[in-house]
What does this fold into?
Amino acid sequence: MSASLALLDRPLQKPSPAAASPVVVMKFGSSVLVDPADAPKVASDIYAEVRKGRRVVAVVSALAGETDRLLGEARALGLAHDNALLPAYVVQGEERAAALVALACDRVGLNASTLSVRDLGLVAEGPCEHARPVALDRAALEGALLKHEVVVVPGFGALSPEGLVVLLGRGGSDLSALFLAAELGLDSVQLVKDVDGLYDRDPNAFPDARRYDHASWAEAKALGGGLVQPDALDLAEARGLKVEVRNYLDGHRTVVGPLSAPPRAALPRRRLRVAVAGCGVVGGGALARLLVDPRVEVVGVLVRDVARSRDVPGAAPGRLDPLLVTDAGALLDRRPDIVLEALSEAGAGHAVIRAALERGADVATANKQAVSLDPAGLLALAHAHGARLLWSASVGGGAPMVEAVREVRAQGPVAAFEAVLNGTVNFMLDRLGDGTPFDQALTEARAAGFAEEDPSADLEGLDALAKVRLLAFEAFGEMPDEADIPRDVLHPASLPPAGSRQVCRCEWKDGKLFASVRLTAGPLDPLFGDLKGEGNALKVVSRDGSVVRCRGRGAGRWATAESLLADLSDIAARRLALESA
It folds into this structure.
């Protein structure tokens, strides 16, 4: 066995706190989390941070109007403001919102958990409806962060020294987030809101009001009004915390901290024109989200048959009809800024990507077969036309595998990687291991949205093969030939032993790439052996022996669509930065 493959065979070790990935604290208020339908967009913001290699503490307010509703119900009993039992009832709004956001995170494949007000151990002193935080049980929060990528906590609430629930005043979720960030030793916190920053005057009353990119704590307190809770700003100044007030609509941030810069006129923003190629499991999932996103205008959807019914959740009858086209040229004639490509066929997808790039449109694709035909050529074409091409959704579904490989390569040469890359096969192997007949396991995989109507690419290892080649391109700058990659077929006539996984390996050895796609039984690294259902996982080894691992939901509508939408968000952020420069 070569040295790099020997490194791959080392067992998974639980990371120590010192080795764990960095933490970011994000707060989402009721202006963003208005009702349950907004939970997916909050999960998208969280996912964007996780795929950058960060763990997230998400602090959430109650849904819009929920706090007032709960207060009204309690006061209908004649309870006074200072009733010591009232906060415990009111904070249920934040705890409900936290559970809802955690569910939305789980849907897209994030490993998420919640801590209640009592679990969090945040202690505050003062009046029961306007207390001030003084201490935190860091062990509870840090323990949760070691086990989970995302920990969602309710804002606004805390515990008195006597153990009763108290509130942190109106806007108290801002204070919750800042205190947690300070206690974790962070230097900044994100407050995600529906406003586009701090202005020198009220922009609603003064059209020539100018917006700050950087403002001091004092300026924010003088000008901010209700932008950030004043008590939270006092804490930020006392603890030296930068407060990033971010508009979720266009990504603009006003950074409140020790430094200031003169405000400037805010540039008008137009909605991004987005076209979708493919309206199947992934394309339809992405489209459902885009149709309710105020940041974008969907200008067209490429399909094979306009008369066929579409599974696009939330789309009203007839809503899609004006958008549907059957010709890629007609789609691109609608002048999209960005094309989301989610076709199921390699040649057609490759042609759409090339045509879009040639017109200067940015592209995000989930089509691993299309991209693996010629990733270097497609990147060169994008560069030649000033466009951008991203393909994170092509590998790993909701698991950020492309980002993980890039992280390792940025630190030094990659030696090898090992992965479980096909959610459909992994799901079926689980069922087959439990004694489920082959045809039933395949039917269940289709019903769950993992397997296509024609599952041959999955069962014959072609899907995993394309992903191995793409990861090899990311890791080594070149790809092994398809013909040189041995692969096993999952077939009812020759089923592997129970507990098997489809394990993909790729290694750089003696100046050449060696790769395989095998149905593997016997002892496996727990990273792979413990995977359930559609789970995917990746282990990347650098030549110095260091290892980066990631895992997540590797198949299914929402996990893969989320990765595709995250690429779209990255493209949109780049466009915003260029326009603002």
